[in-house]
Inverse folding.
C-alpha cells in the first residue's frame, strides 16, 4: 500500500518565503517521480489549524516546511497547528520538518506517543540569504530520498550529512559555512534505532542560562543571517 503524504508549507515572513520556495522544489521533484506519489498539500493560507487537523488523520507522512519551536509546529500567520499536547495525533506516522527546535520536545513527545520517525532540528535552523539554495537543496533532497524514493533512514541521514559537507565547499561565505555545519550538527531523526536521549535535570546554572536566553530572545523560531 502506497503511503499518503500531507505536505504543509505556510508563507508569511522572510524565512517562510524561502522555505516555501524550497517546498515547491520538493513538490516539482516529486511530481516527476513514477509512479507519482499521493500528496495532499496545504499551502499558504490553507496551512491553517482546521485544514491541518482534518487532513492529518488521513495521511501517513507529514512533511512540514516550516516554522516552529521546541513544542509546536506553526502554520500560516503564526497559528499553532500542532503542539506537544497533540503529539498523540502523530501515532503511527512519519514526520519530516524544518521547524526550529521541534525535535527538542515535540519530536520526543511524538516518539513516546508512537510516531514512527521524526526528522527535525534540536536547535534553530539558520541560513544565509546569499546562499539560501545551498541549504534548501539539502532539505529537499532528504525529504525526496526518504519519502519519495523510499531509501532507508540510515542511508538518507548519511547522505544529508555528506551533502551539507559538500555544500560547505561550494561557498566562500564564512557565515554560510558556519550555518551549514551547524544545521548538519543539529539535524536528527528519532526512531526505534535512535530514540531521543533521556533528559537529565538541569542544574541551577543551566536553568539560569535557559531563562536568560529566553529573556534576550535567543530562542526565536527561525534564524536568518543577512549577508
Amino acid at each position: 500500500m502506497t503511503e499518503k503524504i500531507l505536505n504543509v508549507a505556510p508563507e508569511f515572513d522572510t524565512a517562510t518565503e524561502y522555505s516555501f520556495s524550497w517546498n515547491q522544489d520538493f513538490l516539482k521533484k516529486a511530481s516527476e517521480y513514477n509512479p507519482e506519489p499521493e500528496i495532499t498539500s496545504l499551502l499558504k493560507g490553507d496551512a491553517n489549524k482546521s485544514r491541518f487537523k482534518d487532513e492529518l488523520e488521513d495521511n501517513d507522512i507529514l512533511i512540514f516546511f516550516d516554522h516552529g519551536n521546541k513544542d509546536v509546529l506553526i502554520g500560516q500567520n503564526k497559528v499553532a497547528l500542532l503542539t506537544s499536547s497533540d503529539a498523540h495525533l502523530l501515532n503511527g506516522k512519519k514526520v519530516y520538518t524544518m521547524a526550529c527546535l521541534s525535535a527538542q520536545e515535540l519530536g520526543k513527545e511524538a516518539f513516546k506517543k508512537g510516531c514512527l520517525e521524526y526528522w527535525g532540528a534540536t536547535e534553530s535552523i539558520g541560513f544565509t540569504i546569499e546562499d539560501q539554495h545551498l541549504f534548501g537543496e539539502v532539505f529537499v533532497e532528504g525529504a525526496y530520498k526518504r519519502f519519495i524514493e523510499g531509501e532507508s533512514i540510515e542511508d538518507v541521514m548519511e547522505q544529508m550529512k555528506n551533502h551539507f559537507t559538500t555544500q560547505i565547499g561550494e561557498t566562500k561565505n564564512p557565515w554560510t559555512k558556519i550555518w551549514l555545519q551547524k544545521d548538519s550538527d543539529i539535524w536528527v531523526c528519532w526512531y526505534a534505532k535512535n530514540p531521543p536521549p533521556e533528559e537529565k535535570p538541569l542544574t541551577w546554572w543551566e536553568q539560569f542560562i535557559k531563562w536568560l536566553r529566553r529573556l534576550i530572545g535567543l530562542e526565536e523560531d527561525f534564524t536568518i543571517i543577512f549577508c
